[in-house]
From TrEMBL:
HAMAP family: Ribosomal_uL29 (MF_00374). InterPro entries: Ribosomal_protein_uL29 (IPR050063), Ribosomal_uL29 (IPR001854), Ribosomal_uL29_CS (IPR018254), Ribosomal_uL29_sf (IPR036049). Keywords: Ribonucleoprotein, Ribosomal protein. This is Large ribosomal subunit protein uL29. It comes from the Bacteria. GO terms for molecular function: structural constituent of ribosome. PROSITE patterns: RIBOSOMAL_L29. The keyword Signal does not apply. It comes from Roseisalinus antarcticus.
Length: 68
């Protein structure tokens, strides 16, 4: 997922994406705790995707506040 793809989405779609990523992060942490996680790099990717989504949401909030 790239930042340009995320910027094309609406704020509601980004919130849904963030929720899905947080659920995936929880599941990955649970798999790691039980020892069944095979792709440990996915944890890092999900964490960075969450940061990207939050950054884009903040950018949209700032631009909306500046326009108002």
């Amino acid at each position: 997922m790239t930042a340009t793809d995320l910027r094309e989405k609406s704020a509601e779609e980004l919130r849904d994406q963030l929720l899905a990523l947080k659920k995936e992060s929880f599941n990955l942490r649970f798999q790691q705790a039980t020892g069944s996680l095979t792709n440990t790099a996915r944890m890092r990717a999900v964490r960075r995707d969450v940061a990207r989504v939050r950054t884009i949401l903040n950018e949209k909030a700032v631009s909306a506040a500046a326009e108002a």
